[in-house]
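Quick one: VCBS repeat-containing protein from Hydrogenophaga crocea, structure tokens please.
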Amino acid sequence: MNARSCWLALGCLVAAAAVWAQPAAGPRLLFAGVAERLPTADQQAIFRLLDYRVAPGGKALVAPDCGEIAHETQVLDLNSDGVPEVLVIAGNGCTSGHTGSSVFLFVKNAQGRYTQQLGFPGASVTPLPTRSQGWQDLRIGTAGFCEPVWAWKGAAYDLQCSVETQRRGCQGLGPVKLCRR
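--- reply ---
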């Protein structure tokens, strides 16, 4: 093998190692600070569902075609059954528009696999003291003055009503059912 072939082979080996390392690096970045609350296999499955990548250098996550993203991950128990739900708030202006982030909620199904329940622009998620079918209702913070409240409908979360954070904050958004105060 000549020197050029050796360097090319070494370059391919380094690139392959970076790809192989990503399955461990991605979940480690996504679940930093909460990893001990969720098994490694579940962390990996959720990371795959989000379809993010590890940035060159391995210190950040990126969204395909949208660059580096900010992210926050929480492990919750929204229905008090001892099985954790996972909330991820992640994104940037490219992935999530003016809001700058999107909210993703992952819930374990009857087969023991995490499925995505939410996946739309949102800045925050507040679990409310009110419950629907045993699950906490969720208020989603947005870039505007109309915040949706999602409620459990038996197999998934669905839009229940919206809260105006400013007088007439939901006006002009089409038919919006306002939450009773």
